[in-house]
Design a protein that fits this description.
The chain is α/β, with parallel strands linked by helices and 225 residues long. It has a single domain, classed as Alpha/Beta hydrolase fold, catalytic domain (Rossmann fold), CATH 3.40.50. It contains six helices and eight strands; from the N terminus they run βββαβααβαβαββα. The chain has an eight-stranded mixed β-sheet with strand order 1-2-4-3-5-6-7-8, sandwiched between helices. Helix 1 crosses helix 6 (206-223) and helix 3 crosses helix 4 (118-130). The chain is globular and about 40 Å long. It starts with 17 loop residues before the first strand and ends with a helix.
């Protein structure tokens, strides 16, 4: 298995990275920009309810995609910027994302709306309203762990724009085979959990697992035109 698009932190040039604070009706949010030299798209991705933009998949995408003409904007929701440990209700998350959108669209490029876990749900719920070019759903929480009857499939199926789901094979919030048929693509990260971590006994290592994410997103982005 190749990992040609995986980039170690030590290989990442941070000299062009900038951060800006954006006021929203839900409080101050923060965008960390990883610019492409010749951008054709912006990928805006936010974190989940249990972590921040230091998640391994978000960091890897920010390292890899700029070389493919995609400026990556890592978004921290207001609750996270404020130092709170518990995410607010979905409606409040949506308010924060709406407030950020003008800044994400300011470069004048098509914007892919994305996120991991709860952030993926926000991206799906608001895509059509905000005019997103597409949606990237990382570790979409199809249902709470052990509660498949509490499905959130309607959010995913209602995204209304080209959508890519990247899901761990052992994600307790929804395994790939649990996802409904619909107008979306799905990439599986074998053995991966909700954070795409793989067990030490797995036949692929962590770098290879992350490369499945980045390789898949690169190919999908290129297919969007």
């Amino acid at each position: 298995m190749t990992n040609e698009s995986y980039v170690n932190e030590s290989d990442v040039n941070e000299s062009d990275v900038t951060t800006e604070t954006i006021g929203t009706d839900a409080g101050d949010a923060r965008i960390t920009w990883h610019p492409a030299k010749k951008p054709r798209l912006v990928l805006a991705v936010s974190h989940g309810a249990g972590g921040g933009i230091e998640a391994r998949d978000l960091k890897a995408l920010a390292a890899v995609l700029p070389a493919h003409g995609v400026t990556v904007a890592l978004v921290e929701q207001p609750w996270r910027v404020a130092g709170k440990k518990v995410a607010p209700a979905p409606r409040t998350l949506d308010v924060g994302w709406r407030g950020l959108w003008p800044a994400l669209a300011a470069p004048g490029l098509p914007v892919i709306s994305g996120g991991r876990s709860a952030g993926a749900r926000v991206a799906c719920r608001t895509a059509v309203e905000l005019g997103a070019h597409a949606v990237l759903a990382l570790s979409f929480p199809l249902h709470p762990p052990g509660r498949p009857e509490k499905s959130r499939a309607d959010e995913l199926l209602g995204a209304g724009v080209p959508t890519l789901v990247v899901q761990g094979g052992n994600d307790p919030f929804g395994k790939p085979e649990e996802f409904p048929d619909g107008d979306h693509e799905l990439i599986e990260v074998p053995y991966g959990d909700h954070g795409f971590a793989v067990p030490k006994r797995a036949p692929l290592d962590q770098a290879e697992a992350v490369a499945i994410v980045t390789d898949g997103v690169v190919k999908w982005v290129e297919s969007l035109g």
